[in-house]
Write a structure and sequence with these properties.
The two termini are 30 Å apart. With 290 residues, the protein is α/β, with parallel strands linked by helices.
Length: 290
């Protein structure tokens, strides 16, 4: 699920380059894809693994934050996950792996606390409770499929994600930190997020939670990110965006995601043997804006 989105396209390309066959679950049927409706009726086609990346973009500035959008944000994540989990549970020959990508919104924003995969969270605001419901929907008691959850930070890449919305102001020399600029900025390059999911699929004994953030992400603040992005573009980053303006565009609940952040450490991810392609921010941004 979510195979045609920003992360899904990168993951599909990586998996196919490594000799795997990929079928997308999407709204319409077609070549190399089945519909959600068909999945519900006919069950899961024979496969080695299932990945869910589906989810309505929470930070879509063109959508007003309200009950209807909240419901879409929840159902696009929780219902798709539940549908796939049920299909896996009902399959005569279940897949060997079941990977779900959620978010670091599970951990409480804090300027100082550092979180590993074992840290508590998941019950203090809309987004943390969303991640809890989303991960709970993936649980299949007694299933032989090993479950992996990747909690992703802000995904940086070309042609989508956070950077695409920021590039124009920065290219014009109008970019700057959001709010105080002191808040932590948990990030990951799209090739590493796809890489971690691929690593989880191919590592036969890997299960549990992996933090999908770069190793240098705990030391990255929103202000550092703004400076590095401006430097990669050869532009100044002098104009901070005041907190009230962020709240005006996104609404108070979503503004928290941009004005507060978490220091998240990819402890289990590194211990599992994953090698990051872009461990540091300047290298990641140079690749994206090149």
């Amino acid at each position: 699920g979510g195979g045609t989105g920003f992360v899904g396209r990168a993951l599909t390309q990586l998996l196919r380059s490594r000799g795997h066959e990929v079928t997308h679950v999407s709204r319409q049927e077609g070549k190399d894809r089945i519909s959600w409706e068909e999945l519900s009726h006919s069950g899961l086609p024979l496969c080695d693994a299932v990945v869910n990346l589906a989810g309505e973009n929470v930070l879509n500035p063109f959508r007003r934050w309200g009950d209807a959008f909240c419901r879409e944000v929840i159902s696009s994540r929780v219902e798709t996950t539940r549908t796939l989990a049920k299909a896996i549970a009902d399959a005569e020959q279940p897949p060997r792996a079941w990977v779900l990508v959620t978010g670091v919104g599970y951990y409480r924003p804090s300027p100082t606390a550092e979180y590993t995969e074992d840290s508590p969270g998941g019950d203090f605001d809309f987004f943390s409770r969303l991640v809890s419901s989303w991960e709970a929907a993936a649980l299949i008691p007694g299933s032989p499929a090993r479950g992996v959850v990747v909690r992703s930070g802000v995904v940086l890449g070309r042609g989508g994600g956070a950077v695409s919305q920021m590039l124009w102001p920065f290219r014009l020399g109008l970019g700057g930190p959001l709010g105080s600029g002191l808040q932590p900025f948990p990030w990951i390059h799209i090739r590493d997020l796809a890489g971690i999911v691929c690593h989880a699929l191919e590592s036969e004994c890997l299960q549990g939670v992996l933090n999908g953030v770069s190793p240098s992400s705990p030391a990255t603040s929103s202000g550092t990110f703004a400076q590095e992005l401006a430097a990669a573009l050869g532009r100044p980053a002098l104009l901070p965006v005041p907190a009230w303006a962020v709240r005006a565009v996104f609404g108070a609940e979503r503004a928290v995601m941009l004005l507060e952040g978490q220091r998240v450490v990819p402890k289990h991810t590194l211990e599992s043997g994953y090698h990051f392609i872009f461990p540091d921010l300047s290298g990641a941004l140079k690749d994206i804006v090149a």
